[in-house]
Amino acid sequence: MVDKGFRIKVLRKFVHLPYTYQFLLPILVFLHSKENPAYRIWVRFLLNTFREAYAHRKPVVWANSFLPSEIHYGLDVIPVLPEIISALVTYLGWSERPISKADTRISTDLCTFYRCALGLALENFLPRPDLLLSSSQLCDGANKFFSTMGQLYQCPHLLLDPPYSNHPRSHRYMEEQIEDLLKQASQILSLPFKKDRFSLVLNRSNQARQWIDKINQLRQSIPSPFPGSEGLSYLSGMNFYSVGSIWSIPFFSLLHQEIEKKVSSKKGYLPKEKYRLLWLHHVRPYYKNEIFNILSSKDAAVSFEEANYLYWPFHDSSQPWKSLAEKILSNVWAGPIERRMKAIDEMIRSYSIHGVIHFSHWGCRQSCGGAAIIGDYLKQKGIPYLTLPGDCADPNNYSPGQTRTRLEAFIEMME
Amino acid sequence: MNSFLTFKKILDDLKRNDSSCQNKKLIGWTCTYLPLEILEAANLTPFRILPEPDTEKADSYLDPNFCPFIKASLEKALSGEYPSLSGIIILNTCDGMRRLFDAWRFYCKPSFSYFLDLPRVIRPSSVAFFKESLKDLIHQLDFYFGRKITEEDLQIAIERSNRSKALMKELFSLQGMGEPPLTHGDILEILSEGWKIDRFLFNQALEKFISLLGENKKTCSEAPKVMVTGSLLDGSALIRMIEELGGEVVASDLCIGQRILNLVNLDTDPLDLLSKAYLGKPPCARMQDTKRRIEGLKQRLMESRANGLIYFSLKFCDPFLYEAPAIEEAIKETGVPLLFIEGEYTGKPGGGIRTRIQAFLEVLRRDG
Ligand code: SF4
Ligand code: SF4
Fold this sequence. Notes:
The complex is a heterodimer of chains A (415) and B (368). Chain A is an alpha/beta fold. Chain A has helices at 4-16, 18-31, 37-55, 70-75, 82-91, 96-102, 112-122, 140-153, 168-188, 195-218, 228-241, 248-264, 291-297, 320-329, 337-350, 365-368, 371-380, 400-414; strands at 60-63, 78-80, 131-135, 157-160, 275-280, 300-305, 355-361, 385-390. In chain A, the strands form two sheets. A four-stranded parallel β-sheet of chain A has the order 2-1-3-4, with helices on both faces. In chain A, strands 6-5-7-8 form a four-stranded parallel β-sheet, sandwiched between helices. The model of chain A has no long low-confidence stretch (mean pLDDT 96). Chain B is of the alpha/beta class and 368 residues long. Chain B has a domain at 24-152: Rossmann fold (3-Layer(aba) Sandwich). Chain B is built from 13 helices and eight strands. The relative contact order of chain B is 0.13. Chains A and B meet through α8, α9, α16 and α17 of A and α4, α5 and α12 of B. Bound molecules: iron/sulfur cluster (2 copies). One iron/sulfur cluster binds at residues 83, 111, 113-114, 138-139, 141-142, 283, 361, 363-364, 366-367 of chain A.
């Protein structure tokens, strides 16, 4: 028997080798040859990013998902998003060990995405950062997690601190902060500060936005052409991670093509669709679970997810800081809850929604804190609503029996 | 009669004789980064939302894994247990506060509600932004309550608040005086009386009380000396428990205690000064600069000659929970033992916490 410590050591070595990703690429692409081509781009995008991050030929910057991805590509660095790594690790079934490692250091009341990432960092599985960038918008956990990482890696941490209000003074303040942060980041990373590069990236982002918009419009079709479970994995992943990169335009345009084919052949992703659901919260459980199968077995399609709601306007690439400030401050999850409700109303209308599920992920205050208010608001309007408590990264907190009972009762409510 | 009861008696007498201060409108507030001077300049009485713990009702309005202080605050609002408030002001402190603001508006429908932005960093642009936000608050108060706040109003309010803070500082320096000796728990209870009443009245009561104390001698104690830091506490229950178990709390870095003693200079534009003074006060965990927090704690430990530090975090409080390990490491490097407690907003810390504090005090006693 090979001892566990030794296996971990080998695995760590393997993970840190850039060749690993080069080696895995053709294998994974072959294995997924039957999947839609956009999915294969997602695989390539990830493997390429990890290879570059471990090869470290360019500066590696860790950032959180709520920091606009255009910032990474404008700076021309390799972005590492710990929450997305945690989701991937969970998907591969490896999240338990890092989570329990982190639990020796921090409270179990905190978000498991960050606990998982902390465990991975403590066991030295992650690519070493040259700089940490985080946005305090929405998630208190993010900000403090990045501070913790700053201490662990003895690495500078820059914070973008978006205000709550969407007032003109907030826009001015945001613009100043963005410019300041980018100048500081360029200086720390010894990169030339190129405003033009940001304009280029924002143009790319605009093109990606066009395709995202088209995809979202196609998804209004009945029956639902694209599964919500995938909307909450690689589609939202690319939304948070890739916009502004060279990968985003082929990804979104190819996905659009695929969905368009389905729509023109009037084919839904389920054999029969009786109910159309909206999924609230930007994540879902990434370990093996039955949630989407249970829904499918009841002919309930997850037609759309708020994670993919397009809230930001087109960028004016001649004014990059102003545009990025606009993107940040138009975030519907930030600010008063009425903003999120308005967006939910719009999604319910556009996607002909029959019922709404709010997945309340353990440790996520920003989203779960609003679940009851949104529920009461929707109930007043006669829209069936379910709060499904759970954990997106820790399979030990998944209770199959309870989940099934709740989902079945919810479907009954719609009948 | 313990010192707190003596103070309470003085205050009650003053209240009986002065009804003018009690007819002002009350505004609920939740976070000590709010310059109360602005409310006072508007002739309003700030009323601190610091509820007795009880979360039965709020459990169905906020998620179970949510800050217990926030839930208790909402609970009281839902049961109509606050005196009649003419409005609430909540700050952009944390996810919990943002959701509290939503829930309060949604379920309690206050006539005036305001959410004040609060930067996490201190730099010229954030000070300017905070100042602009304060200006906006003033504007809204002017508009809603129909009384224009002038620069002079602000200056008077700042002077009064400075006087309060100077008196509070003096009170802390008199810990150990009197018979029975004034304890940290007494002081925190005295301060909490100030959260509900007009500043003028409170200052008068403090002055009287201090003049009584001044005649007594300071008692020297052999008890292990402890400092307490952390997130919001439900009044003085934890401090009282430490004292009851034989420890002496010599300092606290808390939003109900010594984190609020920031004085505001009065030489130029009052809003500018308020903005600087409040952003620059001793930081809590929601601010960005952990190093500054650590340095502040180390200095306070040294000044107070505490032998140990107790770090209390409410359950589900991301800022304080995430920062705990870094603070723990830094403090341990100085050789001062630290006890970390993660607890509920219960009013009475449970038996488990009691045992841990007992053991911690034992260690401090043993190590001298
Ligand atoms: S799930 Fe919530 S707490 Fe966790 S990283 Fe996302 S926003 Fe933050
Ligand atoms: S204790 Fe923590 S979660 Fe609660 S209000 Fe304060 S900072 Fe927010």
